[in-house]
Amino acid sequence: MRRNPMMFMIRNPAEIVSKFAICPEPGCMVSSGVGDFTSMTIRTGLTHCTNHVSLTEVERKFRQPIKSESMTLIFYDIELSRDGDIEQIGACTESGQTFSAFVKTSVRTNSSPFLKRITPEFWAMLAEEPKVTFERFIEWTKLQHGRNPNSDGKVEGIMLAAHYGSCHDHVHLLRTMMKWGITPPDYTLVDTLAIFKTVKGMSQNAKLKTLVNKYAPWIDHVPHDANSDADALRYVTMIAFPNTKMACHAFGISCGTFMSRTGLNMYMPSPIVTFKHPNTDSFLEPRRRSDTNESETSGTSVSTV
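RE: above sequence
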């Protein structure tokens, strides 16, 4: 698999850490910069961690007026290879419109039992380059939003919901987009696990398989298949929370704020230009641009030819 050898520069780590949100409960040091269950609610925009979540704050967020009819809700799921690369993504809208893709990885190390059954010959035909997949995914989300007759056309009106997305799906999705030179749109990112745990009770088993058995036992759910997981998440969330968009919006956070709270904004395109050799498929040695300085390139994208 050939790819442009992009490079990234890292800002001063102290600048990144200062943007992390910390639970204000006295004596609690849970930070949004650490991706685990306790930081999940902070990563979704609440002030407190899951151990000290404020129901008053949750109720206030639920009462916030929103134009739910202008928003487009999309449920999605990703599956990772054993090397940690995204190998499958599945998504669906409230009305059942779907997106599905198999993604090429540097080495095929499928961890999903569903993907392991695909023969090498079919995998070679079905799997796409990552950049192609995620550019296509972005266009698909915008297309679905455009089909909403009440849409205002703003990308923040697209809510991407994933189960434990704040510590898993959203992180891998955004990081992979940036890795391939794609600027993540300013989606509203939602974590459905945070909704179930906070609203239904922390003691409730909120694994997706358990929720399917409780709320939608009639559907044919195949765990660890991204398409099936995304569709199952759509069913259980819409059944458990009839006012689905309002519930998701209460546990939603802008992509830009999420990146600051998780440290993903530390990755910036390097002011390096790579040029493709005119007679081959390979890339020439990267060369630093001479017409830019650090301040001019701190927020720009890598230029390629």
